[in-house]
Amino acid sequence: MKYFISLDMEGVAGLASWSETSQEQRELMTGETCAAIEGIRSVDEQAAVVIADSHSRGQNLLLGRLPQDVEVVRGYPRPLYMVEGADESCDAALFVGYHAPIGTRNGSMDHTYSSSAIYEVLANGHVVGETELNMVLLSRLGIPLIFASGDDQYCAFSQRFFPHASFVTTKWATGRYSQRTLMPETSMALIREGAATATRHLLLRGRSTLVEEQQQGVVQQEILTTSPSTWTVRFLTTSACDVASWIPGSHRSGGRELSYTSEEPIELYRFLMSCTVAGRYDKDL
User: Fold this and answer.
1) Do 143 and 93 touch, CB atoms closer than 8 A?
2) Model's pTM, two decimal places?
3) Once rounded to an integer, what is the mean pLDDT over residues 1-13?
4) What is the pLDDT of residues 114-163, one digit of tens each?
């Protein structure tokens, strides 16, 4: 079996803000990634693993600490960013260190792809976060989400959309940059156990069954399977929307609101990535 791990930073235990030292971020992110791999392989010894290093510029993992038979997607920019490296050969997805969508009260470093540009993202009218957006593409590839870890508000938000996945809470935010956190070893133990449980469930139920279960429910169908699908980005500034509106095929419905409709999840994802780049340009003006 082949497992795809997408790694972020904001939901990792012990990290309270983006001002943490780079080395501390890398140590803790690598530790939780290794714990997820250990959990998978405690059940599926021959598991193949591909990891998308998906925080900031994608250069966070300490490669020497990882099992040397895994593959890692690194660097930025890349077209599919957080899900780069996933394809039909992957049997399941695990999201490590994830966080709540922008605007979530007491969400650890809450944002949706770009804290400097994006106010809100909607998929077919539903406010969503990075997990839901990523899974639109992965679901089309027939990949189920089996495990995720992050802060309590993230788990509460995304578990509503993916009730059949295993979620591990690593910390409880008391503000955007404050939290009550598990210690790293405790968090890694829970991630290891959660990934093992999720892997057992995958092997018992089968990939196709979990994909079907993942799409059950009206909201799940509206977000994951509706085609064509419309993604709407609400920007922080009108100038960011000015630049993003140059994206071919996009539709501007307000001063800060831009939408894109397509039957192809990859096109939707590239639209979103282009919106984040437009926001970066706006920041430099």
Assistant:
1) yes
2) 0.96
3) 98
4) 988 999 999 999 999 999 999 999 999 999 999 999 999 999 999 999 99
CATH code for the domain of 212? 3.40.50.10780
Write the burial class of residue 180 (CB in 10 Å: 0-12 exposed, 13-18 middle, 19+ buried).
Answer: exposed
Q: Please check whether residues 173 and 243 belong to one and the same domain.
A: no
DSSP string of 146-190, one letter each residue: EEEEEEHHHHHHHHTT-TTSEEEEEEEEEETTEEEE--HHHHHHH
d(CA 183, CA 203) in angstroms, rounded, equals 30
The pLDDT value recorded for residue 285 is 67
Q: What stretch of H or E contains 82?
A: none
CB 101 within 8 A of CB 129: yes
Same domain, 167 and 257: no
Segment 251-269, tens digit of pLDDT: 999 999 999 999 999 999 9
Give the chain's domain count.
Answer: 2
Domain boundary among 219, 250, 267: 219
pLDDT in tens, 25-43: 999 999 999 999 999 999 9
Domain range for residue 139? 2-112+129-219
Helices (H) and strands (E) in the chain, counts: 8, 12
* CATH number of the domain enclosing 254: 3.30.1360.130
Do 84 and 194 have their domain in common?
Answer: yes
Question: Cα separations (Å) of 193 from 32, 70, 96, 135, 136?
Answer: 12, 20, 13, 23, 27
Q: What is the dihedral of CA 86, 87, 92, 96, to 10 degrees?
A: 10
Instruction: Tell me whether residue 267 is in a domain.
Output: yes
